[in-house]
Write a structure and sequence with these properties.
The chain is built from 4 helices and 2 strands; from the N terminus they run ααααββ. By secondary structure, the chain is mainly alpha-helical.
């Protein structure tokens, strides 16, 4: 599980406090994933890969996840069909 996902959860959780609370904050999400056997993948030297991405998708978290996947190398699993424009590194689920 990417550290980028936990950052996004933390930001969304903070925003939701004023409106409708989210079920999990970032720490609880990390604990839940760890308890089921997932390992946290730290955000490492993905900046170069992020710079190289064409501007096909605007969500900064999705772009960071893709850059991280390319750096590791891994595939990004997503339900966002717009990310498939980046090619075989993205798998639609």
């Amino acid at each position: 599980m990417s550290a980028v996902s936990f950052l996004e959860i933390a930001i969304q959780h903070a925003r939701a406090q004023a409106a409708e609370p989210m079920l999990l904050n970032a720490a609880d999400a990390r604990d839940a994933f760890t308890a089921t056997g997932f390992v946290e993948l730290p955000l490492t030297a993905a900046a170069d890969a992020l710079d190289a991405l064409l501007p096909l998708h605007r969500d900064p978290f999705d772009r960071m996840l893709l850059a991280q996947a390319r750096t590791e190398p891994l595939r990004l699993l997503t339900a966002d069909c717009r990310l498939t424009a980046y090619g075989p590194d993205v798998v639609l689920v």
